Amino acid sequence: MQQEWGRLAMIYSRILENPNQQLDRYFNSFKELAGSRPLSELRTAEEAAAAAGAHSEGGDQVNGEEVGSDVAEQSPKPVSAGLTEAEELEKYITIREEMYKKAKEFDSKIISFETAIRRPYFHVRPLNVAELENWNNYLDFIEREGDFNKVVKLYERCLIACANYPEYWIRYVLCMEAVGSLDIANNALARATQVFVKRKPEIHLFAGRFKEQSGDIPGAQAAYQLVHSEISPGLLEAIAKHANMEHRLGNVEAAYSLYEQAIAIEKGKEHSQTLPMLFAQYSRFTYLVSLNAEKAREIVVEALEHVQLSKPLLEALIHFESIQPLPKKIDYLDSLVVKFIEPSSENPNFASVTDREELSSIYLEFINLFGDAQSIKKAEDRHAKLFLPHRSSMSEKKRQAEDFLSSDKVKMAKSYSGVPSPAQSIMGAYPSAQSQWPAGYGVQPQAWPPATQATQGQQWTPGYTQQPYNAYGGYGSGYANPQMPATTPQTAAYGAYPSTYPAQQAFPPQSYAQPTVAAAAAATAPAPQPASVPQAYYGTYY
């Protein structure tokens, strides 16, 4: 509208560099523009100045040995200083055509990823697994391509839909760090920790490690402290990582203080699930860092005084004793294990049977390494008495459940192994009519002539026999059905029983001997139908 042809051509050039669904339309529009306007109007001021300088300096050499402008670099043919305007226009269009072809080729590579993006916008609802996997695969592909600008653009697109997922922010930061773009990495980390996933502890733990590696020790300490105070107080992973960082920095006392502060906070909570694991981790950290076995044992003993016996605590104590020199405190360990795996009114324990059995197995492994024959026998007998009957009962229940399921599968297989016989169909529909049919009738083949079936089809009550073939007859219909001729065979859909049946009168048993030829011929004659002989409702085969 403003007749800014140079800027319009520049916009087309930028469009043709990037793959999009309307790339063909834009390229055709660009060619129409280039054919309708002179080249002097299509070039921007910078391009015109560059072309004039190239002509005056003779920068364009034959055979492409040396090129004086970026436009000439992309030209597929030698350029001379004396090109006509038509040749320059052709070169101008050819450069854009090469950009268009590259964009089309790249579009063919990414079309499968693009079509799999079902939600490119942000929403609080979580994405499904297929979409998350597609984003990961798409990012892998773009990173392999090696185009930095495309990598950044795709990550920014991804973080619109996946803004609530810390793992994508972490991946973005690591990718930018790997290519040396620390400014973009720090910017992405700040957006994640301050805006988008600021309530997720994992992003702050990552920020602490990232800032430590970058040399920002106060920033790393602040990230960990934020988790301790606001995001997730008492998080064992945050305490351990922060203490390990302080130990790496040479602040061992600060590391001890972190554990002690966390333990003091957890002691004030009722039925803390973290406290036993905190004691176990603190004891292990103390022994590995300072090799002070007495202090590590004191921490565990203090834990036994303040918390209820638990699997993590006893497992840590068994492991600690296994790495200590002889003699081992087997009797002390045995008494603690007995209290845990044999709960009583004096020593209540709410641990599950699985936890108690696992701890007993761990203790059996320990006692087999360091115990004598009597202590091994005592532990094995106790384990067999407590847990083998339970395992047997569980196995029996599992076997019964499997037998029940398999029997149901067999019944289902028998029920659906084929179309039921006519006798089975009529018996299921009319239980009271079982005594009317001779024994072994269900195995008789259907060998009646079509004419016989046609004539017998009229022996039902008029309200039933006048229904035409309707595969959905069991659901009823509000439409009037036309009556079928008397000579048309009655065809019924399998299982399409009407909701109600008219009262049936008692009928004498009938013989099902094979009809003779004469009988069949007589049946085809237009004779009055006997009103007292019913015809069974047979299920048809598919």
UniProtKB/TrEMBL annotation:
Q: Which GO terms describe its cellular component?
A: commitment complex; U1 snRNP; U2-type prespliceosome
Kindly give the Pfam families that the UniProt entry links to this protein.
HAT_PRP39_C
What domain of life does the native source organism fall in?
Eukaryota
Q: Name one GO biological process term.
A: mRNA 5'-splice site recognition
- Transmembrane ranges, per UniProt, are none
Which family is it part of?
Belongs to the PRP39 family.
User: InterPro entries attached here?
Assistant: HAT, HAT_PRP39_C, TPR-like_helical_dom_sf
The gene name reads: LOC110771330
Q: Where in the cell is it found?
A: Nucleus
Q: Where is this region: Disordered?
A: 44-80
Organism the protein comes from: Prunus avium
* Primary location recorded for the protein, binned into one broad class: nucleus
Task: Cite the entry's keywords alphabetically.
Answer: mRNA processing, mRNA splicing, Nucleus, Repeat
Q: Give GO MF terms, alphabetically.
A: pre-mRNA 5'-splice site binding
UniProt name for this protein: Pre-mRNA-processing factor 39 isoform X3
